[in-house]
Structures are given as structure tokens and as C-alpha cells.
Amino acid sequence: MISLASQNVRLNATAKTKEDAIRAAGQLLVECGHIAPGYIDSMLGREQQANTYLSHGIAIPHGMPQHRDLIQKTGVCVIQIPAGVSWQNGETVHLIVGIAAKSDEHLGILAALTDVLDDPAAAGRLANTDNPEDIVAALTRQAPKGAITQGLVNAREITLNLLEGAGLHARPALAFAEVAQQYHCAVRVVYNGKVANGKAMASLLKLGVPGNGSITIQAEGSDADAALQALRSAIAAGLDDEPHQTEDLAPLTIPHWKPATELQSFTGVSASPGLAIGPLHLFQPTTLRVIQKGDTPKAEIQFLINALHEADAQLEDIHESVNTRSGKNQAAIFRAHQALLKDEELLDAVEQHIHTGNSAAWSWQLIIQQRVDEMKSLADERIAARAVDLHDVGQRVLRALAGATHAELILPDHPVILVADDLTPSDTARLDPTRVLGLCTALGGPTSHTAIIARSLDIPAIVGTGPAILELKNQAVCIIDGSAGQLHLHPTTADLESAEAFRHDLHSQRETENQTRYQPAILTDGHRVEIVANIGKAAEAAAAVEAGAEGIGLLRTEFLFLDRESAPTEDEQYAAYTEMIRALNGLPLIIRTLDIGGDKVLPYHPLAKEDNPFLGVRGIRLCLREPDLFLPQLRAIYRASQNGPVKIMFPMIATLEDWHAACEVAEKVRLEIGADPVDMGIMIEVPSAVLMAAEFAKEVDFFSIGTNDLTQYTLAMDRMHPALAKNVDGLHPAVLRLIDQTVRAATKENKWVGVCGGVAGDPLGALILTGLGVTELSMSLPSIAAVKARLRTTSKAKTQSLAQKALTLSTASEVRALA
Ligand code: PEP
Ligand code: MG
Question: Quick check: 344 pLDDT over 50?
């Protein structure tokens, strides 16, 4: 607390007006060396904005935050006016406590002052005393240690941190009380064992809560929840404490390219940033299997009806998007296709074949082929040309009917922009970035594994573009803008030139960021965020260090198991982990145990078919059931841990039982090997793990939040779902609130929290996560230099303001708009 001496107190003063009194207090502050004279005007200015009268004849004039540079050193001076001076609204002031505060150091004085305010007789004595030490003693008295007042018994409560630098001094305390007063419920604030009435500014001041202080707000009554929500929002907005409202983040500079002319474009969701120019190549990933023998005619007819509906829905979608993009005339053809699906003559012919024991697929294929051949042989060329439409519709229905098998991804021998329905993780993992300039898929979302791998390969990518994209033909040149999520067709020469220039600028910006990639991400106020990498292959460890990573925050070990004929042996895994440890040369390596299931399937280890694979036997659930997969991996990890700093992390932990079971198996293996213990952590990617984070935090060494899964499970949107995946956005406030909850639980137990989902590598995401208190961000290699550079431009306080603001918003797009 700041000191107050008797020379800071002027007794027996007189003042005709309030202005005189404030000037006298200001003059004393000048004489005591606390402020430059100009600050007195600021004190008068503040008084015009807000009355600084407290109660019992005491006022606390102070200047405006934007004039804090006129404060030479934080301090307080007191003018005693025994005869009183008329203040405002009929109040008479006897004690003027002038405040010059650079930050929160005066809170102790305010807290002591509120003791005086609670005691009118004490205030009266100070107004008339002729001993300055009485005033000094009253204002510097320490609150009795451990003074605990009773809180509410059946209250709802929330615990949160005030913004940095926005402690509960006069103005924020008043703002808090004013919000609380709007509700019927009783509101209490608990800080450091002391309890205050949340509706009384003077009582709040008594707590002396500094900026960043953690308070618990209790509310009891019918509108308690609404009051808590309103107070949370008010705190997030800075409680009227101007400095934080004026300290905005510099705008995020995420450059976008815009074509000069209106081009034919497809819009999807940005999955991997960057811009590429090249020929478009359409990959048709399915071959059709048509079996002649059918099930019962009734069942086969139902298959046909379902397939016709599916084809109709796809055509409706395509019609919509082509109509919007290119107009009614271009879209009309898809209406014609829909009409073909309802051709009764054709459907009767198919049904006849089904009734003789053939499958719907076989019957459909036969009849369509006959009709196509008939049309082609007609003399009328225009009708003959329409055979192609019938063929297209036929294939569409057949795909829905026949069951499709995956075909090998074979690319031309020149670099292309690849357009596909979707790619499997192993197809994407095999992509050669020198042959694939960009990737655009009809399905998928930003958290699907296609997107994750594209980011790690630094290939501009768009996902969730919709089925219309598959109607495209190969083309000589197009432009893919991964950052904007757009594919542009038929660019003009001018557009090609400007896109090329933009690519060049982007490259230069990357070069600049790359130059500082080895420097840590230290914010302007000295706060450091650890930036580590997500990898899936042994060779990527060295590349991660080269990219500026300070370790590996997530090794997705399943990628060592994909793209092979059989599982890697214990020795092969040991060799791979050891290669990474050596490449990291002392930097930490977090090895996540196998996370098979969901969209990651092993070709040689078929899993039972499940209706909801993401909710099924996946991650740790699979490993606990399949010791043949789990034990060799754990043995390999513990053997490798003797070569360098390794931590173990379990995926898909939903319950404490999962964690205990996994630890038990791991500990047995460790003892068998005779290895030293290593840090053990869990992925927080299931909402139940967040809700139980307080319990987990007591036992684990660390948390790493998997926002990709946490988002899909929180929003109940499958990250692979064709229609929903594009909305699986980890910056949704629902997810941010869960992250906030996780960090709070971990902090209470002194455990650290990282994030290894896609949001960590997103420039806005990295800032918000830092503001929420996440201390380690793990991301794909190409994001590292850019995220480090971005974090270095800001302060922890600013990221906290941003994060608190984001927590109060209602939609992911509102959060994204903060950029
Ligand atoms: C996540 O869920 O965010 C995560 C990092 O794990 P994965 O994407 O491999 O499921
Ligand atoms: Mg996950």
C-alpha cells in the first residue's frame, strides 16, 4: 500500500466552492510531488463526468485515466474543511481525499476509508481533529487479518478474475454495485476471505481487490442467475474502467486477395491458408460395385426409393448453388435431371427387373444404359446430346445405391489444384505438396483430418464447398484462396497477375515472420507463451524445430500406424520415438497414445461397424480394450523416455475411470521396463472432462485441450458431417467458456493447460487462448512463426480483455468479428 504522511494532510482549510476544494487538493498533490499541475484540470474534468462524493462528508476527487502521464508518483493528499463545502445534490464535504493513482496502489487507502464511511462518528471526528496523525492512522489502518464475514448460504456463485489493472477502486466498484442493484437477489462478493455487499460501492471498496484479482460473486434469490450473468458481462467489459476500453488490440492483419473482376467462384470454409494458382484436377474417388442378385423385391424397391430421394436432394442443393452463382439458365439443367428421377416409364422398367430377383442397383444400371444407348442412336442431334444428362443422373443414383469403394488417389504428373468429394486421412497424408498446389473438397470441415493434414503440409485448402464442385470439369487454370475459402474459375489475365503479386507479398510476409521464428513468444509485458508443434511422423520433429517450435505439444501417434500393411512393432515405434527425441535435442515431446476410431481407421485392423463412430470405441476406449495395440506402444514410449524428456497424454478421456484405468496399465508397463516416471496428462476434448476438470486437475500433471473434438462434442456436430462440419468452429463461445472453466480448475491445482486443437494455430484463437490463461499452444508447423510474431505485438492485459469480451458473445461469428 502507498504511504501517507502528515505532510500530505492539510487541516482547517476553507473553500467557497467545490472547484476551490478540488483545486486545493490538487495543489497539495502538486506540492507533495505526486502530479504535474495539469492534472488538476483533469480532476475537475472527471468531476463533471462523475460525482466523486462517497458519504458521511467524504469525497475522493481524482483525474481521468487518459491523463495518467501527468502523475509523477502515486499518492493521496487530504484536505480537511471543518466548516464544510457544498458539493453536489445538497451534500456537504468535510474531508477531500485527492487521489493520483497510476494503477491500483491506492486500493488499500480506499479500503481503509470505507471503514470510516461505515462509522459516521469516526468520519465526524476526522472532520474536526486538529491532529493530522488521526487522519493518517485512519486511512492507513490495515484490515484485520483473516476477517471473514459470512457469505450467503444457498447462493449460486461464479469465480472470475477482474481485468488486469481494473481493480475494484471507486469507479469500477460503483459500476459493479449499479449492475447488482438492478436485481432483486442478494449479491455478495468474496475476496481473500472477506465478504462485501455487492450492491454497496463502499462495501466493495473495502475488499481492496486489485486488478487481475480473483473474486467469487454469490447471488441468492429468484433472479440470481441473471444477476451473475450481467455481472460477468460487466466485468468482462472492464467495469467502466476506461483504460481497458481504450487499449484495443491492433487489428489482426489477415490479408485477403480479391479478384478485380467478378469471377465464377465457389465458397467453402477455410481449412488451410494461402493462395495457389494452377490447373484444376477433379478426383472421382469412388468405383462402383454392382451386384446382380438382390434382396427381397420389397427391400430392393425401398433401396431404390431411398437412392432416388438422396439424388433428388443433391440435385436440389446443386440447383440452388448454381442458380445463386450463375443464374437461372445455367441451373435449369439440374431441374431437368430431377425430372428424370421421376420418369415413370423408366422406373416401371427398373421395378420389373427387381421383381425377377435382381438388385435395385443392377436393374437401374441396366435400364439407364439401355436408354442412354437408345438416345445416342437417335437422328436428332440435340436429343442425342442429352444422353449425357441421363448418364449423369444414372451415375448419381447408382452411387447412392451401389455402395462405393475407395479408389486409389492417382494424380497427374504436373502440379494441380485438387478437387474431390473428400479424402481419407491416409489419402491426404500421402499427398505430395510439390504435386498438389491446393485442395478443395465438397465435404469436410475445418477440424476434419483432411484439413489438419493440409495445414501441416502448408497446402492452401477449402472444405465443405458442397456437391456442386464435383460437377466441374478439369480446367487449365484456377485460383484457390485458402484464407478466404474460395475457389475462382476462369481468371482473367489481370486477376492472374494480381493473384501472383499477392502470393509474392504473402511470401515476403512469411519470410519476415520466419526471420524471428526462433525467438520466444514474449508479449510486450513480459508474459511468455510456449509455442510447440503438432506432428504425426518421425521426420516432422526436426522440421518442427526448424520451424521455430519449442517442443512437440502433440504427437498424433496414429499416423505412424496409418498408411501401412500392419501395425508398427514395439521396436519400430521405439525407433520412431527415439528419432524424434534426438531431433528435439532436449525439447519436450508429448506423445499421445493411439487415437484410432472416429474418422481414423486402420486398414489392417478393422473396427466393429458403429452407428456413431465418434461416440463409440475410440481413443483410450479402444486401447483399453485392445492390449495388443496399447501395450507395445506404452513399452516403446517408456523405453524411449530414457533418451529424453517425454510426457504421455491419453486421448478421449471422458471419465475418471478412463484415466485411472489408463494409468494403471501404463504404470504396470513402466515398472516392467524399469523406466523413471514421466509427466502424465490428458486431452480435454469431451465436455464431461471439463465438468470434472477440478477432480482431474488434482491427479494429472497437465491438460491439453483438443478443441477439434471438444467443439464437435459440445455443439453435437460431427466434425465429418457433410452439412454440419463447416460450423464446427472452436471459437464458438460455448467452447471458449469450457476452456475458461478448464483453465480455472487447473490453476487452482497449479497445473498448466495447453491447447493442441486447430484454434491454437489460428491468429485470433491464439490471442483469445492466451487471454484465457492457456500457457502452451500447439499447432501445425506453418502456423508457428506467424503466431509467435502476432503474440509479440500485444500484452497479456490486452489478450485478457479480448478473451473476456469473447466469453460474453453469443455466436462464433461474433467472436470471429473481433478480428
Ligand atoms: C483435437 O481433438 O482437437 C485434437 C487435437 O485431436 P485430434 O484432432 O487428433 O482428434
Ligand atoms: Mg481429438
Answer: yes
For residues 473-492, give the mean pLDDT: 92
Catalytic residue status for 488 = no
| Residue closest to 678 by CA, chosen among 629, 643, 630 | 643
Ligand 2 center from residue 536 Cα (angstroms) = 13
pLDDT for the residue numbered 48 = 75
Query: Is the same domain home to 37 and 96?
Result: yes
* CATH number, residue 395: 1.10.274.10
Question: Are 600 and 713 members of one domain?
Answer: yes
pLDDT for the residue 679: 98
Residue 62 is a catalytic residue: yes
Same domain, 613 and 751: yes
Query: Is the model's pLDDT at 447 over the cut of 80?
Result: no
Q: Are 239 and 189 in contact (CB under 8 A)?
A: no
In a domain, 144, yes or no: no
| Statement to judge: residues 645 and 671 lie in one domain | yes
Ligand 1 lined by 707 (C-beta under 6 Å): yes
Q: How far is the CA of 594 from the centre of ligand 1 (A)?
A: 12
| 580 inside domain | yes
pLDDT mean over 432-460: 84
CATH number for 529: 3.20.20.60
Q: Angle 550-552-558 (CA atoms, 0-180°, nearest 5)?
A: 165
Q: Which residue has the cell 467452447?
A: 735
**619 vs 122: CA distance, rounded Å:** 67
440 is catalytic: no
- Residue at 150 is within a domain: no
706 lines ligand 1 (CB under 6 A): yes
Catalytic, out of 34, 62, 67, 353: 62
Domain that holds residue 173: 156-252
CATH number of the domain that residue 23 is part of: 3.40.930.10
595 lines ligand 1 (CB under 6 A): yes
Do 553 and 503 lie in one domain? The reply is no
Catalytic hit among 56, 94, 169, 353: 169
Shared domain for 703 and 577, answered yes or no, is: yes
Specify the residue with its C-alpha closest to ligand 1, atom 3: 706
Q: What b/e sequence results for 317-328 when a residue is b if at least 16 CB atoms lie within 10 Å of its CB, and e otherwise? A: bbbebbbeeeee
CATH of residue 443:
3.50.30.10
Q: How far is residue 451's CA from residue 226's CA, in Å, rounded to a whole number? A: 39
Report whether residue 757 contacts ligand 1, using a CB cutoff of 6 Å: yes
* Residue that finishes a domain, picked among 114, 139, 164: 139
Kindly name the residue from 34, 449, 488, 721 that is annotated as catalytic.
449
Q: How many domains is the chain partitioned into structurally?
A: 5
pLDDT in tens, 804-814: 999 999 999 99
Protein residues within 5 Å, CB atom, of ion ligand 2: 685, 706, 709
**Nearest bound ligand to the CA of residue 707:** 1
Give residue for cell 481493480: 167
Q: Is it the case that residue 243 has pLDDT exceeding 60?
A: no
Q: What is the DSSP letter of 536?
A: -
Last residue of a domain, one of 139, 171, 192: 139
Residues 389 and 465 both lie in one domain: no
On whether residue 339 sits in a domain, the answer given is yes
Whether residue 506 is found in the same domain as residue 574: no
665 with 635: CB under 8 angstroms? no
Residue matched to cell numbers 476406449: 621
Task: Say which ligand is closest to the CA of 590.
Answer: 1
Angle (CA) 811-813-817 rounded to 5° is: 120
pLDDT in tens, 350-371: 999 999 999 999 999 899 888 8
Is 756 an active-site residue?
A: yes
Q: Which three cell numbers stand for residue 206?
A: 473495502
